[in-house]
Amino acid sequence: MSKVKNNNGYHGVTEPISLSGPTEKYLMQTVEVEKYLSDARLYERQDEAILREEVLGKLDQTVKAWIKKATRISGYGEQFVHEANAKIFTFGSYRLGVHGPGADIDTLCVGPRHATQNEYFFRWLHDILAEMPEVSELHPVPDAHVPVLGFKINGVSIDLVYANLAHAAIPEKRRVEALGRGKVELKKIENPTNRQVTFSKRRMGLFKKANKLAILCDAQIGVIIFSGSGRMYEYSSPPWRSSSMGGSLSTGGVRSSSMGGSLSTGGVRSSSMGGAVEHQIVSRI
Predict the structure, then answer these.
(1) First to last CA, the chain
(2) C-alpha to C-alpha distance for 101 and 108, rounded to whole angstroms
(3) Which of 71, 117, 143, 231 could form a disulfide with 84 if both were Cys (CB 3.0 to 4.6 A apart)?
(4) How would you list the strands of the sheet with 268-273, edge to edge?
């Protein structure tokens, strides 16, 4: 999707319903939404955020020392050992900026082609982490569909996955997308509405059910929530987008733009409003 405005003054090729900005009423409702999220402890404290950054810095230093040590043990020359490097990249809710207090940090470790997963990652890196006094609850899961090292550093939970790329050395200053094929990059979510959707779905148990399903089918499952209201009302505030699509998000509703038949299962109500269909989930999932 193009991020550049066209000659008509809006983004993309589809004309929005309205280009009007938010009114004072909706700006006040935005403040109320942010206060609600804060009261619900969806924002971590400043000291917690600083601790996470310190933990990631410690982990980055650890993997860099690990790759050099493991490369030397494997019998490579000192020049090769000097050039050996590994990097970490965060992803998931922490990368998007919508994580809550106590949430784990999904982290990817990228290493060179000679650093195999079974020997280098699950053997030597595991042993290094096990010897660190600040590391606790170290749980390697090498046989999972997505092999992962789970552990805590100073109480901060880390889910560390590994990928070795077809490079003899990993450049320190290159971005991860420059090391492999292109990917769609999701940046930090600034819109408080999206954070509210995350909270409401967690309260309904969707994320919990997805996590249990992931364990049963031995896979990682991501729940992605997309709202078209941001395109329909391009310059509006979050409360206006919510109400214009058929109700406040704080009620835990799930909106769908599909005009197909409504759900007929028990405990699910559907109503049409403004060309959109709202499904209010009131039954247990």
Answers:
(1) 34
(2) 21
(3) 71
(4) 254-256, 276-281, 268-273
Is pLDDT of 174 > 90? no
Least trusted range by pLDDT, from 11-20, 75-84, 99-108, 196-205? 196-205
Percent of the chain with pLDDT over 90: 34
d(CA 89, CA 109): 6
Question: In what helix (H) or strand (E) does residue 67 lie, and over which residues does it extend?
Answer: helix 46-73
| 181-223 pLDDT per residue, tens | 444 454 555 555 555 555 555 555 666 666 666 666 655 555 5
| Predicted local confidence at residue 220, as pLDDT | 57
Contact call for residues 152 and 158 (beta carbons, < 8 A)? yes
Angle CA 151–148–211, to nearest 5: 90
pTM attached to this predicted model: 0.60
| SS3 category, 89 | strand
Q: How confident is the model at residue 131 (pLDDT cuts 50, 70, 90)?
A: very high
Answer whether 163's CB lies under 8 Å from 108's CB. Answer: yes
Which domains does the chain show, CATH number per domain? 24-164 (3.30.460.10), 189-236 (3.40.1810.10)
H/E element, 124: none
Task: Please provide the size of the chain in residues.
Answer: 285
Under DSSP, is residue 247 helix (H, G, I), strand (E, B) or coil?
Answer: coil
Q: Is 241 helix (H, G, I), strand (E, B) or coil?
A: helix
Pairing of strands 276-281, 268-273: antiparallel
In the chain, where do the E strands start and end?
87-91, 105-111, 135-141, 148-153, 156-164, 254-256, 268-273, 276-281
